[in-house]
Amino acid sequence: MTADPVYSARRYFIGEHAIQAPPLDPALYIVSTPIGNLRDITVRALETLACADVIACEDTRVTGILTQRYGLKAKLLPYHEHNADKQRPKLLSVLEDGGSIALVSDAGTPLISDPGYRLVRDVVAEGHKVIPIPGASALLAGLVGAGLPSDTIVFAGFLAQKDGQKRTRLKSLVETQGTLVFYESPRRLGATLAVMVEELGADREAAVARELTKRFETFERGTLSELAELFSGDAPKGEIVILVGPPGEKPAASQHDIDSLLREALVDMPVSAAAKSVAKQTGGDRNEIYKRALMLKSGDED
Asked: Facing residues of 12 across strands?
């Protein structure tokens, strides 16, 4: 009996061992791929890539290295920010015909700092299933190795290249009570750390993770000022994750400081607005500051 050629193609190889993959339900599968070490692929990801009718990928050459390594035969279709509007209707038609699609990025988890969310949004709108296949992520690998608080995190992606826009974004994050995670180009690392020193504070705990999961993986840990000095010279090689710990607690403002801020605010603000502003600046109790503002406004300061 001759084997079904389609069925035979639905397999992957680990070493010289061929493993048959189970069939897939029609759906869009969001498949995480290794961020550097090809051995970090999951069995479920291999099964999905082996059986998908189409693998939508950023760069067929990059994904081709992965598919060749594991003997995967699925069709590769380029899908990236420059052709997304043209390719989305083709992918939607695959789902409408009862097919399956695996969406991958060049490395890591799709939709993290890439435009894949638009495809997911359209697939959901058309009533098709979206199934995540979790795996490698530079965001998570950097976080768990940094030695910084991980109970609350804010992923800020890539900062703007222009200095003014970069500073504005960092100013908006300065009081965030959680660890900040950024992706950055190695050639901009030194300049970005220098700006972080000015906008986030020189003494903030931080870490720079480089070449995650690869042979020359490194973590450099210290204050932002120490890391800015360390990377002030030639640009390092490899992909970069910057992690910045939460700000330290501010010392409680004295009554003298609160009164000074209130007097300044009351010059051109009503009592309620002045109290709100000063409470935000000092972290003090808004109701107590409002009562104090009333006293100062009436001249009854005792």
From this structure: 19
